[in-house]
Design a protein that fits this description.
The chain has 238 residues and is an all-alpha fold. The chain has one domain. The protein has seven helices and two strands; from the N terminus they run αββαααααα. A two-stranded antiparallel sheet has the order 1-2. Strand 1 and strand 2 form a beta hairpin. Helix 2 runs antiparallel to helix 4 and helix 5 packs across helix 7. The two termini are 38 Å apart.
Length: 238
């Protein structure tokens, strides 16, 4: 066995071991994400059902097992904040896997050359991913589930607010500042989820030559283009 064959054999062995380690870690992450998602939606659903459409005027936050509207707002902020945090974790983990995949792909090009496609197939490639799918595997799925969850929480919070608006006592005018803060926090979490995804997409694009990067950036959303122009473009060299 020549030196090149020995290197290829050793590389295949290491990649196989690393695949097994990553697969076990991914299974653990999958279970954690599912549990967290179910717990958060269960928590929010309970708060939505067992909360009134009125604010607490006399200082009593819970009456006869029914929470006041301001308590529901607090719960909705906690839930959407946790969903944002989980979406950020899923992006970071997915981007890390994709970044490692790029490095491994370059190693394969060096040691396997034309035989790379025969050994590893055509589908296992980190190249030519878009803003929608550059996050790897089910981390991408969970990101979108957490993001849609934020939209879901925001919409049901709006429903609660409109139910309060149609009350005859017009209490909402007194709590207008609180409602405004809740809106800002919810919309801020939704925007930050998109911003963070765009930020990591720009980092992913930087792994390629500048012409390829600029082409990928051009096809993406305006947030991606803004991040690239103001934070990455000056330091990006071919």
């Amino acid at each position: 066995m020549n030196k090149l064959s020995e290197n290829q054999f050793e590389l295949e062995r290491q990649l196989h071991e690393q695949y097994a380690i990553n697969n076990n870690a991914n299974i653990g992450s999958f279970v954690s994400f599912v549990v967290a998602l179910l717990a958060l939606f269960g928590f929010f659903g309970y708060a939505f059902v067992f909360s009134s459409n009125e604010f607490s005027i006399d200082g009593k936050l819970i009456k006869n097992g029914i929470m006041s509207l301001d308590v529901f707002f607090l719960f909705s902020i906690i839930v959407i904040g946790m969903l944002f945090f989980l979406s950020l974790v899923s992006i970071q983990l997915g981007y890390s896997c994709r970044s490692n995949q790029i490095i491994i792909d370059r190693i394969r090009n060096q040691y396997f050359g034309k035989n790379k496609k025969i050994v590893f197939g055509k589908s296992y490639s980190p190249l030519k991913k878009t803003w929608y799918n550059y996050v790897q595997d089910y981390f991408n799925l969970f990101y979108w589930m957490f993001f849609i969850g934020q939209i879901f929480v925001f919409l049901f919070t709006v429903i609660k607010i409109f139910q309060n608006i149609f009350l005859k006592d017009g209490v909402l005018s007194f709590w207008g500042i609180l409602v405004f803060i809740v809106f800002i926090i919810h919309l801020g979490c939704i925007f930050l989820s998109l911003y963070c995804r765009s930020h990591y997409f720009v980092k992913y694009c930087k792994a390629f030559k500048i012409k390829i990067t600029e082409k990928m950036i051009k096809k993406s959303c305006c947030i991606v283009r803004y991040i690239y122009i103001h934070k990455f473009n000056k330091n990006h060299k071919d």
